[in-house]
Design a protein that fits this description.
Blueprint (H helix, E strand, L loop, with lengths): L11 H14 L2 H5 L7 H19 L4 H24 L7 H25 L2 H11 L7 H19 L3 H5 L17
Helix pairs in contact: 1-3, 1-4, 3-5, 3-7, 4-5, 5-6, 6-7
């Protein structure tokens, strides 16, 4: 019995959730019609967008959910670490790059979450412009992505924490937002 305390528990559910976040972020429409740069940085930013939405939804749900969220977050950064190593980043530079990625995550979360909580598409669009469309502003694409994110937040808010923890995440179809006039 005591040996059970030292066994590492399965992280299947956390892995399933992380895979759902990444799969949604990789929808081709984001890179074609939303004009998100199809680069390492652009893909990283879209994973952050979806991770922020997911973690925002689970905040305040209690200790078990907080531990689950932390495990998903840890998987996210383990994957970033592994990706950097696959790209040939040296072992000595990986921790520094991961630290920068962590700072980027928290900075974006600090910019996105208040705008999402307020339902403020304009402020969210501006934050997306600063973070994702750094080379050339894309006001229409930024606004479409902001409206997608606001709808995603509503959709996630309508789902129970238990359902989300199983990886049964219902994201809005980004195709619905690709031609919205603003």
């Amino acid at each position: 019995m005591i040996f059970g305390l030292f066994r590492r528990r399965s992280r299947d559910a956390e892995h399933r959730v992380y895979c759902e976040i990444v799969a949604q972020a990789r929808q081709p429409v984001f890179y074609t019609d939303f004009l998100v740069p199809d680069t390492i940085d652009g893909r990283f930013d879209l994973i952050i967008v979806h991770a922020v939405l997911f973690f925002r939804r689970l905040r305040g749900e209690g200790k078990d959910v907080a531990e689950f969220s932390q495990a998903v977050f840890d998987l996210f950064f383990e994957d970033m670490d592994a990706s950097l190593r696959e790209m040939g980043v040296s072992d000595t530079r990986v921790p520094k790059k991961v630290k920068v990625m962590g700072e980027a995550f928290y900075g974006r979360a600090d910019a996105y979450i208040p705008a999402i909580d307020e339902g403020d598409a304009e402020t969210l669009s501006e934050a997306l412009g600063r973070n994702i469309f750094t080379d050339a502003p894309e006001p229409l694409a930024q606004m479409r992505l902001a409206h997608y994110m606001l709808q995603a937040a509503k959709d996630l808010d309508a789902q129970t924490a238990d359902v989300l923890r199983k990886g049964d995440i219902s994201w809005p179809d980004p195709e619905r937002f690709k031609e919205m006039p603003f």
